[in-house]
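fyi for ur records
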Amino acid sequence: MPLYQALLLAVVQALTEFLPVSSTAHLILFPWLAGWPEPGLAFDVALHAGTLLAVVFFFLRTWVELILCGLGLHYPRLASPTEVRLNRRMFWFLVAGTIPGGVVGVLFEHAIEEHLRTPIPIGMALIVVGLLMWWAEATARLKREIGQTSLGDSLAIGTAQALALFPGVSRSGITIVAGLWRGMKRETAARFSFLLSTPLIAGAVAKELPKLVRLHRAGGLELPLSTLALAIATSAVVGYLVIAFFLRYLQTRTLKIFIVYRIVFGIVVLLFALLQMGHAR
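which gave:
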């Protein structure tokens, strides 16, 4: 893979991982539409490592507070008992919310990878979730802040996150929809979505990283390590900027532009796929 393709796909991954438009769909469809070869496992791991770095560094202070309070410590030292209690509760809510996605990943990831990474299911998922986002926007109460999160919210959003294993759904898209249906403000739903995504992204990277190391040691790594490193760095930097932009954006704006994009892109993908099927006959 040429360096320019690697960097372009790294930018695509960073943009679409955190915006509600589905990174998996774009990483499958972008090379397909451009006529490029499949990037391969090594490159996929590198891009996810980059977005993992982005979300960890953006929420680093928050995660330190949540983990230490969740483990029973009083941190930071000057925090009030109420703040510590809220952080402890939030940590365990995030743990509970991660379980549905982990279970679905273990049970169905292979089947999903084998049967649903094709344009027609992806195009349909883009459209369906776009319509769900429109419905959520139209009916949401948009009142609740992050400190008002309950166990029910965490389990509902975590269950929605499990659906993101299906290409075209979008982890941030479906979890923001669930958050809006639970009465959260848009920015609150996105913030909780990003926090909830961190353990699963980390788990996916940890699961695939040993395979990448073995591949490198066996001399089967097609991409130079320098290309992988640049892709990771690009994905991390752009991802960090996208998180900052999107959280600010949702403080004053709706999801309308992403709804329109998903539906139009989904229709385009279906048309291309049907045209290809027609030519194949």
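The CA atoms of residues 108 and 270 lie 25 Å apart. thats all i got for now
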